Q: What sequence folds into this?
């Protein structure tokens, strides 16, 4: 082989070796670059992880702080709730005690005014007596309403649910409002099919009385309709009036305490005394206690409809015997009064004497024992105040006389305390319970019925 040929072979071999080295070098550079990139990414991830950990720690601390503040806030809310409930119970007890103390002199005043009205008076004196009676009635209504609101707010009202005949209830309400409606020149229509519902009779009656009273008060012309009808397997009671109506901005306010509508200025309200603004508030609370849905619809200038929905009863109400017709005098009846309030005892004694009854009044059981031992008075019927002095109870007088005579006497138990246990005690001995202030007409009717 020539020298020239060997030189060409050497160049080609060298060239191939150079290309191989270049490929190796490129591969090594690529590997190094990849290694650098991987190390760089890991470092970046490490830095990111550290940063995220800091953020998580910060957010965790913030969340923990919020949780602690929420716990403290919840503890404060619980404490505030307990304090409010305690204050509410205290308010209820205070109102109950205050109502009892306020109703005692009010009872004496009403009995005295009634006794005065039975005397021969001139026209002016009769008008004044009627005005005093109306003012006392307003005070009584306000006290009882405030006490009702307090009891409903405290949740101590326990509805006595039973079967209620709506036609009988409607008839009684229509009869009681008839004089008031006729005096205003309005019409009152009661329409009800033979429906029996499940409710508390007394609370339902109060609801409807307040609704009708409010409707009549705010109606200057036209009338009021009380209607009941079946709706979706339940009974719906509507009280509809043709009064001034309620604007959209007032509909959520009419059930608040002491709120009186502003839409009747110059209309129905000018001819009568304004209401206390508590009737619809009582309605709302009683409907909640009974779980009877309440709704209102109204058009200003056209009237208002308030609806109450009640469940139907599967049974008929029990028949209640009706009292015999009452007379107006109690000639010769011997009535023993046990009353520790001197003014109430004196007013009640004068009232009964005006009805030709023979009356003996005592303050306590010791006075009754003295009267019995003297042998000068044998009662036909007892009118006993429940709360006597020094924690004594009027029912002890009934028990003592029943033991001494060997037979029970008819008892009328009077009290300004609406506690259910008093009603239970009266029922246990067959006594008639009359809450103060005593209504003279009711008392006369009850006395005549029990003596008959």
A:
């Amino acid at each position: 082989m020539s020298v020239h040929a060997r030189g060409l072979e050497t160049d080609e071999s060298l060239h191939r070796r150079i290309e191989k080295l270049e490929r190796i070098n490129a591969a090594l550079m690529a590997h190094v670059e990849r290694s650098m990139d991987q190390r760089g990414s890991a470092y970046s991830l490490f830095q990111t992880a550290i940063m995220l950990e800091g953020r998580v720690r910060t957010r965790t601390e913030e969340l923990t702080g919020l949780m602690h503040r929420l716990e403290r806030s919840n503890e404060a809310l619980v404490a505030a709730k307990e304090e409010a409930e305690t204050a509410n119970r205290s308010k209820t007890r205070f109102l109950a005690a205050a109502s009892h103390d306020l109703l005692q002199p009010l009872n004496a005043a009403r009995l005295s005014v009634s006794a005065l009205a039975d005397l021969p008076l001139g026209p002016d004196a009769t008008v004044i007596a009627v005005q005093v009676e109306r003012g006392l009635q307003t005070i009584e209504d306000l006290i009882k309403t405030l006490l009702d609101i307090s009891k409903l707010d405290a949740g101590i009202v326990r509805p006595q649910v039973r079967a209620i005949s709506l036609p009988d209830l409607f008839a009684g309400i229509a009869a009681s409002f008839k004089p008031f409606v006729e005096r205003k020149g309005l019409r009152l229509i009661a329409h009800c099919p033979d429906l029996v519902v499940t409710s508390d009779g007394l609370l339902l009656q109060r609801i409807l009385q307040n609704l009708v009273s409010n409707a009549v008060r705010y109606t200057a012309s036209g009338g009021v309709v009380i209607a009941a009808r079946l709706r979706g397997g339940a009974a719906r009671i509507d009280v509809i009036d043709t009064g001034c109506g309620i604007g959209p901005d007032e509909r959520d306010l009419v059930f608040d305490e002491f709120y009186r509508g502003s839409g009747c200025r110059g209309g129905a309200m000018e001819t009568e005394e304004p209401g206390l603004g508590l009737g619809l508030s009582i309605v709302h609370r009683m409907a909640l206690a009974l779980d009877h849905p309440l709704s209102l619809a109204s058009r200003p200038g056209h009237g208002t409809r308030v609806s109450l929905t009640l469940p139907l009863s599967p049974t008929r109400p029990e028949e209640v015997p009706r009292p015999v017709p009452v007379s107006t005098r109690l000639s010769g009846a011997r009535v023993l009064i046990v009353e520790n309030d001197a003014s109430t005892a004196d007013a009640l004694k004068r009232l009964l004497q005006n009805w030709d009854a023979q009356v003996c009044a005592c303050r306590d059981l010791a006075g009754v024992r003295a009267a019995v031992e003297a042998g000068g008075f044998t009662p036909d019927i007892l009118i006993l105040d429940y709360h006597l002095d020094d924690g004594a109870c009027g029912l002890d007088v009934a028990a003592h006389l029943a033991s001494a005579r060997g037979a029970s006497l008819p008892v009328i138990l009077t009290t300004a305390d609406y506690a259910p246990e008093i009603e239970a005690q009266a029922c246990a001995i067959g006594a008639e319970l009359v809450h103060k202030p005593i209504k003279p007409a009711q008392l006369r009717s009850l006395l005549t019925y029990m003596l008959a």
